[in-house]
Amino acid sequence: MSQGALAPGLARKVKKVLETRIDNPELSSSLNELSNVCTENTVASRRALRSNIEKRGVKINEEFLQVAEAAQSALEAVEAQLEGLSNCCNRIGTALEASRASTGELVTETTKLKKELENSGKRAEMVGTFLQGYQLSNEEVLSLREGEVDDKFFVALEHVKEIHKNCKMLLRTHHQRAGLELMDVMAMHQETAYERLCRWVQAECRTLGDSDTPEVSPFLQKAAGTLRGRPVLFKYCAEEVASQRHNALFRRFIAALTRGGPGGMPRPMEIHSHDPRRFVGDMLAWLHQALASEHELMGALFGADATPAPASALQGEEEVWDIATILDRIFEGVCRPFKVRVEQVLTTVPGGLAPSLLLTFRISTLLKFYMATLQSVIKGEAALLQTVRECNGLAERTFYDVLKSKGDKLVRHPPAPSKELTPPAACASAVHQLAELLESPDVSMVQDDPTASFEPI
């Protein structure tokens, strides 16, 4: 039978079979699978091939359905969970919308309160700055009233001064009432602190008389310097220091005259009373050394410039308490013992004789030298300097009185000329004494021109 005689449907199938590529991997896989289904090439197996394939397909589908049922159940569970999650999200969204609607006013109120908090913080900072500049803390008030006199006390006192200065600036504004009230409070604290500081300084100054070489603590020096702003209180403290050092210096001077140093060394000055020039020189040297020590002590205590306040601020006070004034008060006590002993040296001579011209001249020159030395430390009207000046005047008067008495004696009883016409013994003695005066080394200590001291002679 030719190709044209075939039925159209059969022809298409034959053509399809002929056009099928046998090297197709899918066809090879299908044939291999079909060989597993049809193990025997018999008529019966070929006739049942279709039914076997359909049965195998049904079996495969059944197995797929069994497996798919588990997956379907899992998918249904996931779907249920997703649906529950979606419902939950919807509820959360609804709750958020409701919360946003209900908390809108709260957010607005919170923003407003935040701004108020920032403003309150700025106001609190301003108040803190104001309190720092115009108020004392509780610790500072306690330090000024009851605490120890230490660094905290002086810091608090400086803060009071600073506040007082700030109040003066406050009076220039429209807050004059507040400035006046604050100034009154600070003035009360300041006066209380100054009075307490004055009492403390006076108590500390009482201990200065217990030692010959006292040490000034930094706090005492700072306290004395602080009291310069209060002339009256400064005067009380200066008087206390002068009183204590006055008594201590008097005791030391009397001990140096009569008992000497510890263990008898150095020896008492009165042991050299038989040598008037040395005795007077020892007393003057001791006083000069004591003056230098006391000046150093007062400088350490009150500072190099101990003037408490300008003259206009003393409100009628006639006396300005500086270091020179304090030293004058300290050395008042030793003036009389010194003067009495100098007078004894110049007026009391063994045997009732008049003192020698050379001795009185040397003592006068020595007094002039120390008088010029003391003037560089103390005032010209100081008691010690006045005493030395009076002693010098007494020595000069004694010198001229002795010189005049010798001249008057020669005038009343002139010596008879000798046969050899040599100078009389009295003239030779006078010339010898004058030569001793000219050759005295004490003159050069006082004046650059030694002959100026002999013009009155």
What does this protein structure show overall?
The chain has 457 residues and is mainly α. The chain is 71% helix and 0% strand. The chain is built from 15 helices and no strands. The chain has helices spanning 8-19, 25-37, 43-47, 49-134, 138-145, 151-170, 176-206, 218-226, 231-258, 276-302, 323-330, 335-347, 357-374, 383-412, 425-439. Helix 12 runs parallel beside helix 14. It is rod-shaped. The N and C termini lie far apart (192 Å). The relative contact order is 0.04. Mean pLDDT is 79; it is low at 311-318.
Measured between the Cα atoms of the first and last residue, the distance is 192 Å
What summary fits the major beta sheet? none
**Total helical elements:** 15
Overall geometry: rod-shaped
- Sheet-strand content, in percent, reads under 5%
Helical coverage, percent range = over 70%
Query: By helix and strand content, what is the structural category?
Result: mainly alpha
Order of helices and strands: HHHHHHHHHHHHHHH
Mean pLDDT: 79
Give me the count of strands.
0
Which stretches are low in confidence, meaning pLDDT under 50 for 5 or more residues running? Answer: 311-318
Backbone CA Rg: 62 Å
